[in-house]
Known about the structure:
By secondary structure, the chain is mainly alpha-helical. 78% of the residues lie in helices and 2% in strands. It is built from six helices and two strands. It has helices at residues 2-25, 42-60, 65-95, 104-127, 136-167, 172-199, and strands at 31-32, 35-36. It has a two-stranded antiparallel ribbon. Strand 1 and strand 2 (35-36) form a beta hairpin. Helix 1 (2-25) crosses helix 2, helix 2 (42-60) runs antiparallel to helix 3 and helix 4 (104-127) crosses helix 5 (136-167).
Amino acid sequence: MHKDYNIAAIIGFITAMFIMPILIFSETPLAYGSVSLPLWSLFLILPIGEYVAYAVASKLFSHVLALRQLGRFGIVGLMNFSVDTGIVYMLQYYTGIGLSDPRILYLFVVSGSLAIVNSYFWQRTWTFSEKAPPNTKEFIGFLMITLLSIGINSGVAFLAGNFLLRLDIIAGSRVLGASKIIATAVSLFWNFFGYKLFVFKKQ
């Protein structure tokens, strides 16, 4: 059980690594009210926060496997969001491709594809605790669910981003992050139930 808590903390550290470029390139300070924190504090806040959150959740839902899996899925999902969005922010910065440019979809696909490898490892070994060796059928199933998710995520992010740009209600540098949050929320349940029911269904 404590091993799971430590894994949650490790995932929190990885999440912090990729949230850094999101905050830097979106020019978003790490602040709450009048309190402003240095970015390096993410490397303390997220590992400790996810350790404690998972410890509490695992105690509350110790007899409900699906809820424990959902908690793990949420922690891994936050990390994957940070990996996906952090990479796309860096790609956008170095390529100069704007959010209203259809070529941004290529960046979404690249970042999403890189996140697939990360997602497969953590969802397989931790979220659904799959013990059997990986096999081609399982990976193809995971890939199909994930590719459909990338399509959903990329399409929603593109539409939401352009909608937010037209509304002009948030700073332009933060529209990409906001659009990715909306897209991630839409694809979240598709991913969880797809993986649970069709890929790692033995659990």
